[in-house]
Write a structure and sequence with these properties.
- The protein is an alpha/beta fold and 356 residues long.
- Helices cover 33% and strands 14% of the residues.
- It has twelve helices and twelve strands.
- Helix 5 runs parallel beside helix 7.
- The radius of gyration is 21 Å and the shape is globular.
- The two termini are 39 Å apart.
């Protein structure tokens, strides 16, 4: 059907990115609706290319979208684009991380502006009430809290490798009760629920702080936990939960921080006790040494540690919105997503040093 859009699912450039925004089963559902889908080969994706071909998707070499994808195609991905091509003229659907003042934001937006393309940032695909429609939050929270629990027990080894959930859960349950206490800030969202579930699986006592508790933040009580998991997603600056001075101001039990949001370099950073992300090779960053060591885990693709589970949940959420791309009338959720891009471009033109 010539009037239907083409989806071109690109390969991910980051070697540790094993997820996919669309699973073979969900691709099959779109193909049956007449949507044309091309899937690039990938050495890392958890789902083999053959599974996509078997349900009617075309295939293409990794990274070929820039020269081979039709201009009308939606280029679908998850994480960062490669540095080339410099000019971006397609409609890209992925997590751009460019609207919150992140350091890389202005340059990415300039590439779209110069090429005439559009960024449909999945972080801003939301309903009229602002609720995100497709997110990896649950599995980000689960993986981040699981790493924190293992690290607090001296069981975290690097480099990290993806694990099936049953194997990860077995590791979490392997330690006898040890009296560890964890605090999850933002326990009611997707990430917070995942974090609480992982810590419960590990047999760790969980304290849950919602909005009321953070409005009356008790830093002494916060520091009296072994593990802190920050699962708060904010779109406006707010007082930080911890500052460097807080870490040395008095007694501190806290030894591991897992920051799920990873808003470093942004005015929205609620834990400015660290200034750079960690990764699969070095998952924990030492903030304070003996006699009271403190480490932070801040990995921006945590769900890729549970790639199959995370991808299936995300793809199921995203599927109806991908189908809506070819609806007879414009989909309001995609229109809001596009408007967020337009607003960011306007802000960039007004202040070239900032994306928002």
């Amino acid at each position: 059907m010539a009037d239907l859009p083409q989806l071109w699912m690109r390969s991910e450039t980051r070697p540790t990115e094993r997820r996919a925004p669309l699973t073979p089963d969900d691709a099959a559902r779109l193909v049956r609706q007449g949507v044309r889908i091309t899937v690039e080969d990938s050495a890392h994706r958890v789902f083999p290319l053959e599974e996509y071909a078997a349900v009617g998707c075309a295939t293409a070499p990794a990274g070929s979208w820039a020269g081979a994808a039709p201009g009308s195609a939606y280029v679908l991905g998850l994480k960062e684009l490669p540095a080339a091509p410099e000019l971006l003229h397609h409609r890209h659907v992925y997590f751009g991380h460019a609207y919150k003042g992140q350091p890389q934001g202005p340059e990415l937006l300039r590439r779209f502006a110069a090429g005439g393309g559009t960024l449909l940032d999945l972080e801003y695909l939301a309903d009229a009430q602002g609720r995100r429609l497709a997110a990896f939050g649950y599995w980000a929270g689960y993986a981040g809290a699981a790493l924190a629990a293992l690290h607090a027990r001296g069981l975290l080894s690097a480099p990290l490798v993806p694990l099936p959930r049953p194997e990860l859960d077995a590791r979490l349950r392997a330690s006898p009760p040890d009296g560890l206490r964890a605090l999850v800030i933002g326990p009611d969202g997707r990430s917070g629920r995942g974090a609480c579930d992982a810590l419960t699986t590990a047999g760790i006592h969980v304290t849950r702080w919602g909005r009321a508790a953070t409005r009356r933040l008790d830093r002494g009580a916060l520091l009296d936990h072994d593990i802190l998991v920050n699962a708060v997603l904010t779109d406006r600056p707010a007082p930080p939960f911890l500052t460097p001075a807080d870490l040395d101001a008095g007694p501190r039990r806290l030894s591991v921080i897992a920051d799920i949001t990873c808003d470093t370099g942004s005015d929205l950073h609620l834990l400015p006790v660290y200034d750079r992300l960690t990764d699969w090779t070095a998952p924990a960053l030492r903030l304070r040494g003996a006699p009271r060591p403190l480490d932070v885990i801040a990995i921006d693709n945590l769900p890729s540690l549970l790639p199959a589970e995370a991808a299936r949940a995300f793809s199921a959420d995203l599927l109806p919105k991908l189908a809506a791309l070819h609806a007879p009338s414009p989909d309001p959720d995609w229109l809001r997503c596009r408007d967020a891009f337009t607003t960011a471009l306007t802000a960039l033109r007004q202040d070239p040093d900032r994306a928002a």
